[in-house]
Amino acid sequence: MIGAAKPIIERREDGLRWLVITDGWSDELANLVNSSGADGIELNSSKGTWADGLAFLSQVPSLKHLIILDLQERGVSPIEGLSRLESLKLSAYATSPLDFAHLKQLQKAFVEWRKQYRNISAPSNLQALYLNRYTERDLAALQSLTKLQSLRIGDSPTDQFGVGCFDESCGYCIRRSPTQV
Question: Which residues contact 157 (CB under 8 A, 6 or more apart)?
C-alpha cells in the first residue's frame, strides 16, 4: 500500500464512473479499477495527492480513461504502459518523454504539449484531439490521423500553420488564445 486510500467514485455526464484519487494509492484501488468498479482514474492535484509519481499506473494496465491535472507532475512516461487507454486528459509540465505510439487505442485526447512528446499521429483511432501549446512548425505530423473528426489547438501561434481559425461546424477548429485575437 502506497497510501491510505479511500475510494471516491463519481458518475459524470460522460456516463463513466471516475475514481478520484484524494489520499494516495493502494492495492484496494487497483483492485477496484481492475474489477471494473471504475471506468477511469482522475489524478487532480486540486482534489488530492498521490505519492511517488505515476509508477502505480502499472497496476491498472487495462485502464481505458485517465485524467491527469497536475502541473507539478514531471514524469508521465508510465502512461505508455496503458495500451488500452481510450481517452486521456493530460495537463502536466512534464520533463519526461511520452511516446503516443504505445497508445494505439486512444480515441480522445487533451494534451498540454511538451517538446519531448512523440508520435501524436500513432494512435490511428484518434477522433478528437486538443493540443495546447503545440510547438511543431506545421500540422504535417497529424496528416495520418484519418479518423480525426475534431482538432483544436490552443495557446499556440496558429499563424505558424498557415491557417486561421475555422468555423467549428466543419469539425476542425484551430483556436486562437484571447491574446492572439
Answer: 180
Please state the separation of Cα 55 from the chain's center in Å.
16
153 and 174 in contact (C-beta within 8 Å)? yes
Q: What is the pLDDT of residues 54-101, one digit of tens each?
A: 999 999 999 999 999 998 899 999 999 999 999 999 999 999 999 999
Mean per-residue pLDDT of the chain? 86
Phi, psi values for residue 168, rounded to 5°:
-60, -20
SS3 state at 14: coil
Residue position matching grid coordinates 482534489: 47
C-alpha grid cell, residue 70: 497536475
Q: What is residue 56's three-state secondary structure? A: helix
59: exposed, middle or buried (Cβ count in 10 Å: 0-12, 13-18, 19+): middle
Alpha carbon distance 76, 93 (integer Å): 9
